[in-house]
Amino acid sequence: MGKIRCAVVGVGNCFAGLVQGVEYYKQNPSQQVVGVMHPVIAGYSIHDLDFVAAFDIDSKKVGKSLSGAVYAEPNKVKWVPSLSTMHDVVVMQSPRLDGVGMYVEKVVEAVPDKPMETLRNAALSELKKKKVEILVSYLPVGSDEATKFWAQVCIDAKIAFVNCMPSFIASEPAWAEKFRKAGVPVIGDDIKGQVGATIVHRTLAKLCDDRGTKIEKTYQINVGGNTDFLSMKEQERLQSKKISKTESVQSQLRQRLPDDQIYVGPSDFIPFLGNTKLMFMRIEGRMWANIPYNMEVRLEVDDKANSAGIVIDAVRLAKIALERKLAGPVEAASAYLMKHPPRQMSDPDARAELEKYIKG
Length: 360
Hints:
With 360 residues, the protein is of the alpha/beta class. Helices cover 35% and strands 21% of the residues.
């Protein structure tokens, strides 16, 4: 069936986890593929993603081979010693815009910026030359203007957009309509981890709600030690992230909690944790005869392994949309894979809709 020709913007830890995971299974063919919900989708396996173009702003990555750039600091994923692919892919410059926060500036040295139109034309030329079909955005949290730049590039280049970040494109009606008019599919926004903090929180909240209890308050606190959490130290960059995570939980409740009785969001950066993400969650409520109950959960995951299997699915689902000439948000894929989709569903309903979509 051929490869799925992809590009990535943001050659960071998330992308490193994605491609190093694929390499791990390539080097260990006897290993059962775990950590992915669909080993094969419409004939496409995890090995059919071919990243042929890449964009970043870090001087340690721009102009370098993509196979080497995934190991450059501050990336922390070192699951395999080297990659067997992408040696001939050179990382090109992306516009900086709002992609680098005040704390991340200390660990990322951005290349000198160029005029926006120059970078836009170079990106369009590269995407066309490499015959890219799908662009995956791994931009940092808070990169709203940068996300809009790349969304428009995808529309102009007529390629699908997988928006892994909490800058609202697929779920923003005006942008969704732009993709529809252009005849281009989009999947977004803000990737759910495989067994991540928010998916666990929303699942348990829905369980409590479905079983007839009254949830009165809940919180979710996340800490980690990679550049994602370093970037999120800057509170001004967190608005869309908090909306995305909070709405993901609120959407599962029959009655919304008051804003001051729910907290869902990143909380702090602890350097020595590296890619380890810790989540602390609490739900308080009342049962029969107003008897109180509470539950607490501690979750520890590798933040990058947790997202890679989801993106592997998202890219292949975007490929199906291209083959079927679908345009605009792919609702079933977005609802099941993303925290802030155009239309929220329960996870079982979203999974059922997704399987229908895959079968056509």
